[in-house]
Design goal:
By secondary structure, the chain is an alpha/beta fold. Helices cover 33% and strands 26% of the residues. Helix 4 packs parallel to helix 5.
Amino acid sequence: MEKACGLHCTKINNIGVKIGNDVILKDVSIHIHCGELSVIIGRNGAGKTTLLKAILGEIDHTGDIVFTDQKDNITKKIKIGYVPQSINIERHMPTSVYDLFASSISNIPVFLKKDNKLYKEIKEHLKIFGADDLIDKSIGDLSGGELQRVLIAIATKPTPNLLILDEPVSGMDRNGIKDFYSIINKLKTEYDMSIILVSHDLDLARKYADKVILLDKEVIKEGTPDDVFKSLEFKNRFGELN
């Protein structure tokens, strides 16, 4: 991945979603700056998943999403990397990390002979995430933390303008969570990446976020973790955070 110059920004402008007469999201505007981890929090039904689907173009919505590059040029054609909360994996299937990765970035059928050049390219990219030793391992044999490292590696090739992570540490142990956020910090600082993370874990949001966005169909409060967690808007929805 090539490091950007540090001046780009993803702008989510006035996103709205209605299903029938029900308003699911209303005029959601968020600026996600490069080199920044923005964590979206909110109670169940606040619209977090709907917002992700709107950003990914999976549901109809009003408003738009634009990317401003380092020369202040605006484009709507942005590259988004996405790591879902979970993927369905058949434990008995022999699919390797290489097979999964190759199928996502290449037109070469994975059941054919391995492409040595592609294999080397994938291994080099996995190395960024401390996962190069997993390349021949079966997907079904990966731990939760190992699988997340592989999925993030896939999501960041080619380098996205925006990386979206949906509840990425659910089911991970403490060491896995620590390793995960170490990778996120690396993506922020070394690759200047804009990152949105949706989380139900308020303690992790407070510990690792650069910016927290409290969503309840619209943006109720945003700012530093302290700004949000000490706000009346937060306390009205979650009470006091220890």
